[in-house]
Amino acid sequence: MARHHIRTAVGAGALGVVAALTLSACGSGFSDGGGTADGELTSSEDGITVLIGSSGDAETTAVEEAVAAWSADSGIEASVQVANDLAQQLSQGFAAGTPADLFYLSTDAIAGFAANGSLQAYGDMLANKDDFYPSLVENFTVDDTFYCAPKDFSTLALIINTAMWEEAGLTDADIPTTWEELDAVAAQLTTADHVGLAFGAEYQRIGTFMAQAGGGLVEDGQAVADSPENVEALDYVKGHLDDGTFAYAADIGTGWGGEAFGTQKAAMVIEGNWITGAMSNDYPDVDYVVAQLPAGPGGQGTLQFTNCWGMAADSPNQQAALSLVEYLTSTEQQLAFSAAFGPMPSIQSAADQWRSDNPELVAFLDGADYAQFPPNQQGASDVIADFNAQLEGLSSGDSQTILDSVQSNLEATLG
Questions:
Q1: What is the 3 state secondary structure string of 154-183?
Q2: Cα–Cα distance for residue pair 177/164, rounded to 1 Å
Q3: The dihedral of CA 62, 63, 65, 66: what is its sign?
Q4: Stated pTM of the model
Q5: Each residue of 15-68: pLDDT tens digit?
Q6: Sequence ranges of the domains in the chain
């Protein structure tokens, strides 16, 4: 097995912003909005403000430099504000009628803000709209309207400790491609010192098994949480939690999968490409490889996470904001962002170059072909939060009972 000391500066932005932007759709509502009824964008001499939730200095610097370059080229003033609490500051800006022109916006926030008129839908106006991965466009489509440009994305993959793998007598040929193979290697890797596979006690990780079983939470706008496929997935996880070859990160004394892996309390974890930054910064001596998650009875499955560049309906200079978005989501700029702080470009034209630049991480991009995304309907984030609370007790719980509860909550949310 090849060894990799992956030292790219990859921030946890994709994960952190998704977590931070679990927003309630509060605010005064701007049903008349800044854009005109026929879809034209506002234009003025006003400068542009950009509000971001940064994963750290690398991300902040990269965005500031990109915005400054666009500003110098366009002649339009532009500034970047780094939020201490992105959710709160967005909500406050909308409520006051003075939001930032552009801002990071998560999938679980878009439906609420779209419903109360806070957002300008500009997706179909993008010159590069056909370059975005279709699944990412779907993330930011509400009521058949493509609202905003996906700024980047991440998927989940299997992260394997190279030393532990070799110590267990495993080779490249043993990298699991099915649940049965995962069973075998997880058992072989489990010792008194570390568990075979660890992950967070949450849908955002366990949902990969649901996808691999052929399940999911929402399909064609309908709740499908209580399906036999999902029951099979939770029973599979439960069985391995009980036999000790799988473990929740919290149950082995760690805060998340990256810490479980970095402290070598787990030989394998299910995580996104933000883990590479944590490994480089905090655990540089731990060698690892990245593989696609194994297929289950329903085929291959993983989850993806993304944010978009939201545009305020109250922005007085939406034309300039659109120009800035097109610059920030260009092939060249997205590759620069990826090199600086790690997310994968949201456009297909950057894929080949990204693969060439990151050969050790291609499993993350390969997952884009079959990745599911968490439900983006208004209120779905609250249902998932309750689901996660129940998943913490999966070992002593009943899979069907848990999923029946999720189904009921989702049906109420989806109407």
A1: EEEEEEEEHHHHHHCCCCHHHCCCEHHHHH
A2: 19
A3: positive
A4: 0.83
A5: 333 333 333 333 323 333 334 334 689 999 999 999 999 877 888 999 999 999
A6: 13-153+305-361, 155-303+375-414
